[in-house]
Q: What sequence folds into this?
């Protein structure tokens, strides 16, 4: 397996690289070295993914080694690297100063490679490419509940219903897979180490999403969905569909810290659209009516149980009136929509 | 009223209710809840989000189209019941049109770098503008394939019956055009082996076309039936559920086409549809992509319309504020780019890896305009061929696949159907084109197995049957054309299976003949499609295309003759395509820029030393000299000159500054192959992967230079002289046979000198041509020394027994070459090979680090010059003893170079450089290099 010196960084490539691939990797490495953004087009079939992985992981390896080596005595040779080293140092000092919020950053977490592609099947391809490289990083993949859920009842559901069911179960701590995760976490003192962290790098396998799921489900009997969210912080490479990052809501749900990480968007030609879509909303009058009905059902349910043991089911303080208020507010709004729909529209945009 | 103050409370309530409902759902009380509340909560949160200014949004309320209404299902019915007073449900859209916001949030989280990559990002500037991030690094890579042989891109503005092919609104509903598109597909289905993907702009375009094609016209079988004669027809289903089955059917047909040689399959799909990305159609699954129109987003779509006006408005605001709106998309640009991205995405299906090949057929007349064809991906753009009539494209396509079929040699040589010329005349009914495959009428063009000549004649003069090619010994059907043979030989050395590299040369010529001429090209001076070497010995020039009269040769003829004499086959092909492209540079566009890929190619051809005459002739060529808009091109051409001619008379090493060339590289690779072959037992410093690379021909040529590095340890390059020509076992038989012919002079210079003719140089000069010339101070005209000449000679030599004019045959016989000169040439070849390696490291056709390469090149040139100057100084000093000061200066000059070569990847080059250094400095250099290590 040849090793190339790409902009001062040794990069292992599984075979002789074509010139276009070297050019591509050079761009990647330089961008990462300088901490700048890059827009890279390379036709399908030119081995983009492999180049990206090799260059990014090669850079990461060099970056970590440099950090390890440079307790600030001997700056490494080369102007570019030197400048960058200083920058890094400044960044880590800055991170230290910023205090408690950035605990992970201050403990010198090495930059993760966050590899986002459009779909899981595309990510599957990326994992296959990763297996061809020399690198065996700690990998984590993020998927949806729909992909990961092992609960025998919940997994039968789909979409929002599944999500809601899972949330309800886990909130009540009634899912055994989720419970085991919590137990395990407690045992390990708050955070789970990556299952492969103890293995020597050479003997590590690179799991794909199926491997990961079955390992978590069968061997560990831990919920793969929540496990993946635990492990994302302690892994070297994170694979995920890019709407997880681009949709502010899912990003928030992930509670992910991207400080000093490298973000890669593969198949990025859709990114602009996904960005815009994630920030847009479509709402039909049918859905609003449905929402009103759902509120009604909640109110009815609460009233029927009449402040008994289930009083707090609707509201913590058993206050049904809050919900009723919401209902009337919404009712008023949706009455507007029956007229012109502009009423509803105006309430959305008015500050 | 819900407001910013109370919405969060409301959302909280919603969430609690959602949780509650979920719990009840779990107990089976109510299944199938659709969680409208959750969605409403999200909507409210988004609407009131503080970091999303309403200026980035547009609001739109529409009546819901019938098909979006919830059909059946209890939930749907109840929902409608609730909305009984409503005539029709409405949909509220609150759309964000500023993608940058999400990206900005990500960047604000302290991310180190954001890298975006894809096969289809271009135009990069507008993409960057959309995302609103600063992108310091941008790259548009070319493809790894050899575009000449593995890719064909053709624009078909007209169908077989002459109807305009376009999805433009005015034309869309014409039955004739639709039928003609069908006829085109029938032809493609016959010509293209294995899998073909046909992309329609939209589902509705697909279904209307299908409906039209199912009808039989005038008792002739329908388009569908005729396609099915050759291919299994698969249509992309509207519903995702049928997709897997469709793909299975398609792949099954492909498999059987590979295994059993059946016709393959044609898949009708939709741009931006389920099959336009993500599914891998490599190799046999996709030998052709047909684009049947521009997939412009539906203009009636409110979201599209609002996006356009949003962009225009934003641009207007920026302009009004006095800032520059450069790089900001207009609505119309965005609209067009949407279509082009979808096209590029679809076209990207065709080539999936380095050995893949296929054709891209753009059946849309608007691709004849630069406005649209410029939107195609960079790797396609230089290879686009315009076929003004369907009849022009047909043989080209036929030939493309025939060449490939010959190469794979697996397919029996069954004649692909020839286009029925009668059908072309029959403009009203396209069906004849696809008529039964009986014996061809006598006036049919393109006789069944068209080797090179018949293609040429078919294209240059379709009316006359090609003259019998009696001077071809084995008849027309059997032998591959002469140049093919040379090319195949060449390919053999590159480890490829019989690649023919001549396609571009011939098609380029053919194209230049068939293209309509621009007004500014004086008729007399147009480059006659003079026979290329490929067609030598065959009377071409039919169809009144050749203007070669008895009188004085015109400027264009001189140019062509010169080009033929100077350039090798690849370069000649490149040269012809330059002429073609120069002609088509859009006069009307008024832009003062010459496309960079054209400049690239110009440099490729003219960037050598020894091309001065050709360059002058080219500049003098009326098509280049006259048009005012070609001024940038002329400037660029003149800039090539100083670089090449910037010489220090006594030092051939200044050749180092001559840019080396893609076309030449392959021949350099060829020559290295020979050197390796003849001196097979010479120690090679780089076995293993390196040599594999050389054999792939893609990079890192390993000429004799690599062996030059070893003499550092061995006193003299004895091994070079040891093996006489023709004895090597590693050479293919055909090649060995050719070797027995008298060698052109420079071949000897290129290959290591046999012992008898060139005695090993004195040990201290280590066979370095540079050292030799410096010592004698010999001054020779550079043109006689040019590396490219040497390289060109090689190809001339191999073509010798093919009846092709051997360039340089008038050179003195081998014995006459003074040893000194021979050594000098070897040095030059070394120098050129060295520079090629260096350049290859830094450059490829498009993506490159020009500045780094320039730096190292300049430094090298400067340093070598310094060393030579010092040598001169020292020599002129009494006793010839240099002082410490001189030595220090020399060392410094070498250090400058070494710094740039210090990366491990370039380390072998540092060794190679040793023999190129002037006399007396090698030892110091080795010491420096070792010290570095």
A:
């Amino acid at each position: 397996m040849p090793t190339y010196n790409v902009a001062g960084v040794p990069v292992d490539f599984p075979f002789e690289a074509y010139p276009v691939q070297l050019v591509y990797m050079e761009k990647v490495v330089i961008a990462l070295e300088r901490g700048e953004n890059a827009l890279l087009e390379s036709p399908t079939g030119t081995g983009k993914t492999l180049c990206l992985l090799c260059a990014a992981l090669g850079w990461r390896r060099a970056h970590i080694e440099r950090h390890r080596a440079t307790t600030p005595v001997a700056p490494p040779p080369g102007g570019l690297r030197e400048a960058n080293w200083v920058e890094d140092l400044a960044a880590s000092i800055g991170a230290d100063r910023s205090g408690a919020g950035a605990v992970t950053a201050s403990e010198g977490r090495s930059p993760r490679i966050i590899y986002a592609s459009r779909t899981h099947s595309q990510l599957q391809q990326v994992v296959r490419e990763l297996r061809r490289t020399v690198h065996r990083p700690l990998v984590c993949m993020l998927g949806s509940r729909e992909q990961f859920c092992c609960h025998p009842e919940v997994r039968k559901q789909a979409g929002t219903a599944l999500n809601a069911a899972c949330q309800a179960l886990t909130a009540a701590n009634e899912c055994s897979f989720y419970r085991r995760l919590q137990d395990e976490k407690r045992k390990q003192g708050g955070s789970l180490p990556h299952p492969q962290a103890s293995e020597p790098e050479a003997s590590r396998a690179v799991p794909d999403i199926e491997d990961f799921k079955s390992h978590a489900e069968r061997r560990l009997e831990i919920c793969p969905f929540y496990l993946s969210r635990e492990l994302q912080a302690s892994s070297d490479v994170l694979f995920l569909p890019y709407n997880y990052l681009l949709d502010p809501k899912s990003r928030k749900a992930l509670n992910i810290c991207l400080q000093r990480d490298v973000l890669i968007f593969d198949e990025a030609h859709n990114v602009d659209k996904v960005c815009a879509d994630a920030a847009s909303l479509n709402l039909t009058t049918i859905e609003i009516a449905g929402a009103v009905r759902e509120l009604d059902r909640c109110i009815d349910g609460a009233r029927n149980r009449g402040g008994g043991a289930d009083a707090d089911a609707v509201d913590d303080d058993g206050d049904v009136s809050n919900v009723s208020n919401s209902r009337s507010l919404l009712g008023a709004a949706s009455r507007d929509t029956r007229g012109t729909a502009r009423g509803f529209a105006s309430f959305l945009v008015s500050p | 009223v819900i407001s910013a103050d109370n919405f969060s409370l409301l959302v909280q309530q919603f969430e609690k209710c959602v949780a509650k409902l979920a719990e009840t759902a779990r107990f089976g009380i109510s299944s199938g809840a659709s969680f409208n509340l959750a969605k409403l909560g999200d909507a409210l949160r988004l609407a009131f989000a503080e970091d999303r200014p309403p200026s980035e949004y547009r609001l739109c309320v529409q009546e819901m189209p019938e098909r979006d209404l919830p059909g059946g299902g209890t939930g749907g019915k109840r929902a409608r019941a609730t909305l009984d007073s409503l005539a029709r449900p409405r949909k509220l859209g609150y759309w964000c049109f500023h993608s940058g916001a999400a990206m900005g949030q990500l960047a604000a989280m302290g991310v180190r770098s954001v890298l975006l990559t894809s096969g289809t990002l271009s135009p990069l500037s507008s993409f960057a503008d959309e995302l609103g991030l600063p992108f310091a690094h941008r790259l548009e890579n070319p493809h790894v394939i050899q575009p000449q042989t593995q890719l064909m891109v053709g624009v078909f503005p007209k169908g077989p019956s002459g109807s305009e092919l376009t999805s433009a609104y005015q034309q869309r509903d014409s039955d004739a055009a639709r039928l003609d598109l069908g006829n085109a597909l029938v032809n493609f289905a016959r010509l293209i082996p294995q899998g073909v993907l046909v992309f329609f702009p939209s589902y509705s375009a697909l279904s209307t076309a299908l409906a039209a094609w199912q009808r039989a016209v005038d008792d002739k079988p329908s388009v569908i039936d005729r396609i099915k004669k050759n291919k299994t027809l698969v249509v992309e289903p509207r519903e995702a559920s049928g997709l897997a089955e469709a793909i299975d059917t398609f792949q099954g047909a492909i498999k059987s086409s590979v295994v059993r040689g059946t016709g393959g399959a044609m898949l009708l799909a939709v741009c931006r549809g389920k099959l336009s990305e993500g599914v891998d159609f490599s190799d046999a699954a996709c030998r052709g992509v047909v684009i049947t129109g521009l997939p412009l987003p539906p203009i009636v779509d409110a979201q599209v319309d609002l996006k356009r006006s949003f962009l225009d408005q934003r641009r207007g605001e920026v302009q009004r504020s006095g800032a520059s709106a450069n790089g900001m998309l207009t609505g119309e640009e965005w609209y067009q780019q949407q279509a082009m991205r979808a096209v590029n995405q679809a076209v990207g299906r065709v080539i999936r890896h380095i050995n893949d090949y296929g054709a891209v057929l753009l059946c849309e007349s608007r691709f004849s305009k630069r406005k649209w064809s410029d939107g195609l991906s960079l790797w396609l753009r230089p290879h686009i061929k315009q076929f003004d009539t369907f009849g022009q494209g047909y043989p080209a396509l036929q030939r493309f696949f025939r060449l490939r079929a010959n190469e794979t040699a697996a397919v029996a040589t069954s004649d692909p159907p020839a286009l029925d010329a009668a059908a072309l005349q029959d403009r009203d009914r396209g069906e004849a084109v696809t008529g039964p495959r009986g014996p061809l009428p006598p006036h049919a063009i393109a006789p069944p197995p068209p080797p090179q000549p018949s293609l040429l004649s078919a294209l240059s003069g379709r009316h006359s049957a090609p003259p019998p090619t009696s001077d071809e010994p084995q008849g027309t059907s059997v032998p591959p054309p002469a140049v093919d043979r040379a090319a195949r030989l060449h390919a053999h050395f590159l480890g490829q299976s019989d690649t023919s590299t001549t396609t571009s040369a011939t098609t380029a010529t053919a194209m230049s003949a068939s293209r309509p001429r621009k007004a500014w090209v004086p008729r007399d001076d147009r480059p006659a499609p003079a026979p290329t070497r490929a067609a030598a010995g065959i009377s071409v020039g039919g169809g009144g295309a050749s203007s070669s009269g008895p009188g004085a040769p015109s400027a264009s003829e001189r140019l062509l003759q010169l080009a033929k004499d100077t350039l090798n086959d690849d370069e000649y092909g490149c040269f012809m395509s330059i002429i073609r492209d120069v002609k088509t540079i859009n006069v009307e566009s008024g832009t003062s820029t010459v496309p960079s890929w054209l400049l690239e190619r110009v440099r490729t051809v003219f960037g050598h030393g020894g091309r001065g005459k050709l360059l002058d002739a080219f500049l003098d060529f009326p098509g280049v000299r006259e048009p005012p808009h070609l001024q940038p091109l002329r400037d660029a051409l003149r800039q090539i000159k100083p670089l090449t001619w910037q010489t220090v008379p006594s030092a051939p090493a200044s050749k180092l500054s001559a840019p080396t060339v893609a076309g030449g590289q392959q021949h350099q690779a060829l020559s290295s192959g020979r050197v390796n072959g003849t001196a097979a037992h010479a120690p090679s410093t780089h076995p293993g992967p390196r040599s594999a690379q050389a054999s792939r021909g893609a990079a890192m040529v390993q000429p004799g230079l690599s062996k030059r590095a070893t003499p550092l340890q061995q006193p003299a390059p004895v091994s070079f002289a040891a093996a006489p020509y023709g004895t090597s076992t590693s050479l293919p038989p055909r090649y060995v046979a050719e070797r027995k012919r008298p060698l052109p002079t420079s071949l000897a210079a290129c290959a290591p000198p046999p012992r008898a003719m060139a005695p090993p140089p004195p040990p201290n000069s280590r066979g370095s041509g540079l050292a030799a010339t410096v010592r004698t101070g010999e001054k020779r005209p550079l043109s006689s020394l040019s590396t490219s000449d040497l390289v060109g000679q090689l190809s001339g030599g191999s073509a010798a027994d093919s009846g092709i004019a051997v360039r340089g045959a008038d050179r003195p016989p081998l014995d006459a070459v003074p040893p000194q000169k021979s050594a000098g040439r070897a040095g030059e070849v070394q120098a050129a090979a060295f520079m090629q390696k260096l350049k290859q490291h830094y450059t490829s056709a498009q993506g490159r680090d020009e500045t780094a390469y320039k730096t190292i090149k300049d430094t090298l040139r400067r340093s070598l010059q310094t060393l030579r100057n010092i040598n001169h100084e020292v020599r002129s000093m009494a006793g010839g003893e240099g002082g410490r000061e001189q030595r220090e200066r020399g060392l410094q000059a070498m250090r400058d170079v070494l710094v740039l070569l210090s990366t491990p990847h370039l380390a072998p080059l540092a060794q190679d450089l040793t023999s190129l250094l002037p006399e007396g400095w090698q030892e110091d250099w080795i010491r420096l290099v070792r010290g570095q290590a």
The mean pLDDT of chain B is 64. The radius of gyration of chain B is 33 Å.
